[in-house]
Amino acid sequence: MKVAVVGLGKLGLPLAALLATSGNEVRGYDLSPSHRDAIKFGTINFKEPRLGDLLMDARESLVVVDSISEAMNGVEVVFVIVPTPSMPSGEFTNEFVISALSEIGTAIAGRNQRIVIDIVSTVMPNSCAGVLSQALEEFSGRKIGEDLGICYNPEFIALGSVIHDMEYPDMHLIGQSSDWAGELVQSALKTITRREVPARRMNLTEAELVKIAVNNYVTMKISYANMLYQAALTLEGVDIDTVTNAIGLDSRIGTKYLRAAAPYGGPCFPRDTRALSFLYGKLGLENSLSEATDLANKNHISFISKFIQKNVLKGATIGICGVSYKTGTQVIEESPGVAIGKKLAENGHEIRFWDDEQATPVELENMFYAESSPESLVNEVDFVVITRPLTNPKPFYDLLNKYEKPFLDLWRQG
Question: Does the global pTM surpass 0.90?
Answer without folding.
Answer: yes
